[in-house]
Write a structure and sequence with these properties.
- By secondary structure, the protein is α/β, with parallel strands linked by helices.
- It is 30% helix and 20% strand.
- It has a domain of 130 residues: Rossmann fold.
- It contains 6 helices and 7 strands, in the order E-H-H-E-E-E-H-E-H-H-E-E-H.
- It is elongated, with a radius of gyration of 18 Å.
- Bound molecules: iron/sulfur cluster.
- This is NADP oxidoreductase.
- GO terms for molecular function: 3 iron, 4 sulfur cluster binding; oxidoreductase activity.
- Its cofactor is [3Fe-4S] cluster.
Length: 188
């Protein structure tokens, strides 16, 4: 991290939001795996928006936790909303940090992937590439989030271990910079 910690008045909760862009929710599951810290967390943190409470609106939060890569224009829009409304932005997991699994399609090109998935693959019954205007447009390349917005903290791993979330939340609560041990910084 290279930024100021969250300053707050006594009794004031730290407001957190999270989102899953092109991700599998595995990072969210790991975030929920923080065991007894949950008790501390509910005293000090307020979860404002995200898949855990299904709230979509996002306004003035302290910390935004972003899982997943950028696969489509909708992902970019959500990410930009997060950056505009969060003091600190945390990229969690391989997908957000370097594209991870979704970025494997970059090796083949978008057209080839669509063709394989919707036209040529074994078992396809109605070969047609979806073109509904309601569907978000796919990006030509899957992108990591720091290619589009500034990121304040990175929690690597697939998913990052619960201990890394524990350290992040404890540091936020204690008003200090997080310090991640070697075993929390995993790339598997
Ligand atoms: Fe899922 Fe791993 Fe991506 Fe997290 S980093 S969203 S666990 S694939």
């Amino acid at each position: 991290g290279n930024c100021d910690v969250i300053q707050r008045e006594p009794g004031q909760k730290i407001r957190i939001a999270s989102c899953s862009l092109a991700g599998c929710f595995g990072c969210h599951m790991s975030m929920l795996d923080i065991d007894e810290l949950v008790v501390e967390v509910v005293h000090h943190l307020e979860y404002c928006r995200g898949p855990l409470n299904d709230v979509r609106e996002l306004r003035d939060v302290d910390v935004g936790v972003v899982e997943g890569a950028l696969c489509n224009e909708d992902n970019v829009k959500v990410l930009e909303q997060f950056r505009a409304n969060c003091d600190l932005l945390v990229a969690v997991g391989a997908c957000a940090i370097n594209g991870g699994l979704p970025a494997m399609r970059n090796h083949f090109g978008l057209t080839a992937c669509l063709k394989e998935a919707y036209l040529d693959a074994e078992g396809v019954v109605n070969p047609e590439i979806p073109r509904d205007a309601e569907l978000p447009r796919l990006l030509n390349r899957v992108r990591p989030i720091q290619e589009v917005v500034k990121v304040d903290y990175f929690l690597p791993g697939c998913p990052p271990p619960a201990a890394a979330f524990t350290e992040l939340f404890t540091a936020l609560i204690e008003g200090r910079e997080p310090a991640f041990d070697e075993d929390m910084v995993r790339f598997d």
